[in-house]
Amino acid sequence: MDNIEGGTGFVRLSGILAPRGPIPDSDADYFRLSEKDTRAAKATNARPVPTPQQIESVLERSPVATILDRRNRAAIAFTWLTGVRDGALISLKLRHVDLGKQLVDQDPREVKTKNSKQLRTTFLGVGGSALRIVEEWIEELRRDRLWGNDDPLFSRDGDRAGLRAAIRGYGIGPLIVMAPSI
Q1: 52-169 is classed in which CATH architecture?
Q2: Residues 111-166 pLDDT 10s
Q3: Residue 71 CA: distances (Å) to CA of 40, 78, 79, 164
Q4: Model-level pTM?
Q5: Helix 130-139 vs helix 52-61: angle between axes, to the nearest 10 degrees?
Q6: Domain limits, CATH 1.10.443.10, in the chain
Q7: What stretch of H or E contains 12?
Q8: Which residues contact 131 (CB under 8 A, 6 or more apart)?
Q9: How far, in Å, CA of 128 to CA of 1, rounded?
Q10: What is the DSSP string of 72-84?
């Protein structure tokens, strides 16, 4: 039966002759769940959510020795600060974040948003160190790594895209750049 929940398998069988004659449609309807039971069957259980104190503890205890450590810490802070989805987080570029207005512009042509929706997300007032960590991360990318608006906010390897942007900034053509080990 391909869909017992909706009863379609039993409805198809209701016209077939059984040893005592055809199975009435009303008998097949017996297997169909009520709307209430269908909603209850599809309901998901609530997942545990970290408390603000737990998130703050993770942010304060996160290592910061390498750029990847700082990137991971900033990604956690940014997610808590803005509530962006993980698909959007990894596709954001520096130009999508306006620290002055505390705004994230999720343009579906460049950011992987749910259902390709245009979203403008304001920073949540979560307090703690999240905003400071995000500001420091963006400052490090722009000042120390020379990243521009077209570079990712959270790159996969932490450095390669920034090196390419720096090389492009000096007017050098496309090169294959090997990122130093970090």
Answers
A1: Orthogonal Bundle (1.10)
A2: 888 888 888 889 998 888 999 999 999 999 999 888 899 898 988 765 544 444 44
A3: 41, 10, 12, 18
A4: 0.65
A5: 40
A6: 52-169
A7: helix 8-13
A8: 77, 81, 102, 123
A9: 54
A10: HHHHHHHHHHH--
